[in-house]
Amino acid sequence: MEVHSKWYDGIVKEINLHKDILSKKDAKKYKLDLLLRVAKRADSFSSECGQCQMFQPDITTLTQNLG
Fold it and tell me: For residues 48, 52, 36 and 5, what is the CA-based torsion angle, rounded to 10 degrees?
């Protein structure tokens, strides 16, 4: 089982909430699956990568602005 940060868990909850609300067409339009993959990758490398740490607030803003 993979261990993720609280930040990533919050992003997953937010994106899944939007996936439940939006139609499949809109979820595809907003590329929610891609956003989730990018968030997972940024989370997995954030301990070693400063750029990944800088992407996290941007990803958070994107997920908050979906609704």
Answer: 50
Note down pLDDT in tens along the chain; length 67 residues: 577 899 999 999 999 999 999 999 999 999 999 999 999 999 999 999 999 999 999 999 999 998 6
pTM of the full predicted structure? Answer: 0.87
Rounded (10°) CA dihedral 50, 46, 18, 28: 80
What's the CA gap between 57 and 6, in Å, rounded?
13
- Total number of domains in the chain: 1
User: Domain range spanning residue 56?
Assistant: 12-64
